[in-house]
Amino acid sequence: MGEENTELKHKNVLFIHLPKTGGTLINEYCRYTGAMIYYLNEGNAHCPVTSVTNPENYFKFGLVRSPWDFYVSRYFYYIKKNVPERGLSNLLDAGLHGKGFEQEFPTLKDHIKYGTELGEDRFWFSNLYKEMFCDDENNVLMDYVGKQENLINEVEHVLSLNSIVPDVSIRDFDLVAKDHFPQARNATKHEHYTAYYDDELVDLISEKDEYIIEKHGYRFGE
To answer: Residues near 31 by Cβ (< 8 Å), separated by ≥ 6?
Structure first.
């Protein structure tokens, strides 16, 4: 399971949405059940924990994922999109989308190379993590950070910690989401992330995302 601050327990569970960590499903689950809060700050997604007014009123929950997997998911998400990125991920897609993005970056490695040349800190997952979950000194301000790979179990654990028993469990909601809540499914279709890496690219992400890899115990291929 994830990292937990056991000193605080709040009824109001607030999900802080680090990009590409299953937040679309959680958002729809929140809208359907009210078990957790997804939107604050006038409904803006991807608002950092530092933007939360009266943070002591909330049990602040977020998810992380393997950095190697993250870049593959983001790459195919940009190919899938029909508009350029805005907000937190502005310019990370070079202002392109769909076929235009794919033509400019025919492989994941091409996009990662662009990231190294871009000089934009937000391109790298660990920097997004720090921006969303930490203060200016990189102290984690979250009460619980779980793993996207265990999303269903993590949500159940957080609700249990806060003695919240929803009318519909996240497990049951996930089973029907594909047919009844298609907007909850924002996943991209691709092979297992390991298929898109060579040794050079594995090492580059190991260097750029050492923070997440070490903090959350990720290893390539595991």
So the answer is: 38
Express each pLDDT in 82-102 by its tens digit.
999 988 888 999 999 999 999
Across the 222 residues of the chain, what is the mean pLDDT of every consecutive 10-residue run?
50 91 90 85 78 91 97 96 90 96 98 96 97 96 97 96 92 81 64 97 98 98 92
Reading the block at residue 13, the tokens are: 């569970």
CA distance 65 to 93: 20
DSSP string, the chain: --EE-TT---S-EEEE--TTSSHHHHHHHHHHH-SSB---GGG-SS--GGG-SSGGGSEEEEEE--HHHHHHHHHHHHHH-SS---GGGTTTTTT--HHHHHHH-SSHHHHHHHHHHH--GGGSHHHHHHHHHB-TT--B--SEEEEGGGHHHHHHHHHHHTT---SS-HHHHHHHHHHH-GGG--PPP-S-GGGG--HHHHHHHHHHTHHHHHHHT--TT-
What distance in Å separates the CA atoms of residue 120 and residue 149, rounded to the nearest whole number? Answer: 27
| Tokens, residue 83 | 């508009």
45-86 confidence digits (pLDDT tens): 788 999 998 899 999 999 999 999 999 999 999 999 999 998
What are the tokens at 214? 């070490």
